[in-house]
Design a protein that fits this description.
Length: 410
């Protein structure tokens, strides 16, 4: 049944009126805003110092490897030592590492080490906030909240690259890195000091590290996220290669891609999520990406990417809801850490595959096709393993309660 627009808006308005929800969404978006700037400004900074895009690429690879390795680890630490201590420590180390990259002139291997440290100490904001969400609203509202979060995060990918490119080209890459550090510290402090972060205590997990991946829905979400983000990375590389002589067109097309995701999340993200919800949403993305390679015209690519974007935020919202609903509360942060690691590896692989194809005989058209193939594989996984996905129309997306033996008197 089609839900009227007025009802959809009222549902999101009700969510934002829930005490603390609007504040924690704003705080975490600010804290995550540097994620949309770090890679680009480091690329420009290292290339400016060394004169080599290859060296800059290696530093970025070290950054991504650090993020991928540390994501599940720092997320799990929050259940052992608490969210605030872990977030404070990682924010401080990340800020110091980025500051060193900005102000030190050192050999490339030193930049690689600093890049790895910056990646490994990236604050686990996503794992923290999505764990907090589960305690802020009831199970029937949680799926809509995840979709709203996935939609609003597109603001980061629309504004952050434009802002950091302007700063780096007009004031220099050092100023750009300083801006990243300032936003990282200020946004991190806002999030860390938010009352909701202090109120939610993640129980210490009783299971060994990595056991959460034995839960089929978490493994499916990790694999689908790996493939889905890989398709986005391939799209980004393809768009940049298509309009390499006109950066304005590339930026506008990628912004349209994100606007489509924002629109799709706000329009459809609240819908109930059955086992087939993920497959339906991925079908929209796959169809749009498949059409992109038909004609390398800016208007056509913009239109097809907007269409593909409509399914992105709803699909990402479904991945978050499936993850939360399938694990105990004490394991939610680690589960989101693994999902995030899968997405980071997917981004690296998608970029590499697209870059190889762009330089090959197939050119940009083959790179766009690879993005569609990545997404089609994600769709295939969602269809083949649909029985492993929970029906959130019945029980909502709340995590499984942690229980302990209770002594009784006989």
């Amino acid at each position: 049944m089609r839900v009227p627009y007025r009802c959809r808006v009222a549902g999101y308005r009700e969510l934002l009126r829930t005490p603390g929800v609007a504040r924690i969404i704003a705080a975490q978006l600010t804290a995550r805003f540097p994620n949309g700037m770090i890679s680009l400004v480091i690329l420009l900074h290292i290339e400016g110092i060394t004169g080599s895009y290859g060296a800059a690429g290696v530093v970025l690879a070290a950054l991504s490897i650090g993020q991928a390795i540390a994501g599940p680890v720092t997320s799990r630490w929050m259940g052992r030592w608490g969210m605030r201590p872990v977030l404070t420590l990682t924010t401080a180390v990340c800020a110091a590492s980025l500051s060193a990259i900005a102000f030190l002139v050192v050999p490339v291997p030193a930049y690689i080490v600093l890049g790895f440290l910056a990646g490994a100490s990236t604050p686990p904001i996503v794992a923290a906030v999505r764990t907090i969400y589960a305690k802020m609203v009831n199970s029937t509202q949680l799926t809509a909240l995840y979709s709203l979060d996935a939609s609003l995060q597109e603001v980061i990918w629309i504004l952050a690259p434009v802002l950091i490119t302007f700063i780096a080209t007009q004031a220099g890459t050092v100023a750009g890195l300083v801006l990243v550090v300032v936003v990282l510290v200020a946004g991190g402090a806002w999030f860390i000091l938010s009352p909701e972060v202090g109120r939610v205590r993640i129980p210490r997990s009783k299971r060994s590290f990595g056991t959460v991946l034995t839960r089929p829905p978490v493994l499916i979400a990790t694999v689908v996220g790996f493939l889905l983000i890989g398709s986005f990375a391939a799209v980004e590389a393809s768009v940049v290669a298509t309009f390499e002589h006109d950066g304005l067109e590339a930026g506008i097309v990628l912004a349209v891609f994100s606007v489509g995701s924002l629109a799709g999340g706000l329009a459809f993200g609240h819908l109930p999520m059955g086992p087939w919800a993920l497959a339906r949403r991925l079908t929209v993305v796959t169809a749009g990406l498949a059409l992109t390679a038909v004609w390398l015209d800016v208007w056509w690519i913009g239109a097809t990417l907007f269409a593909a974007g409509i399914g992105i935020a709803p699909a990402l919202g479904t991945l978050s809801a499936v993850t939360t609903a399938s694990v105990k509360f004490s394991d939610t942060a680690e589960a989101f850490g693994w999902v995030g690691t899968g997405q980071l590896i997917g981004a690296a692989l998608g970029s590499a595959v697209a870059g190889f194809l762009i330089d090959g005989p197939g050119g940009v058209t083959a790179a766009y096709a690879s993005a569609a193939v990545f997404c089609a594989l994600a769709l295939l996984v969602a269809v083949v393993f649909v029985r492993g996905l929970p029906d959130l129309r019945v029980r909502g997306a709340s995590p499984i309660p942690d229980t302990e033996p209770v002594p009784t008197i006989t």
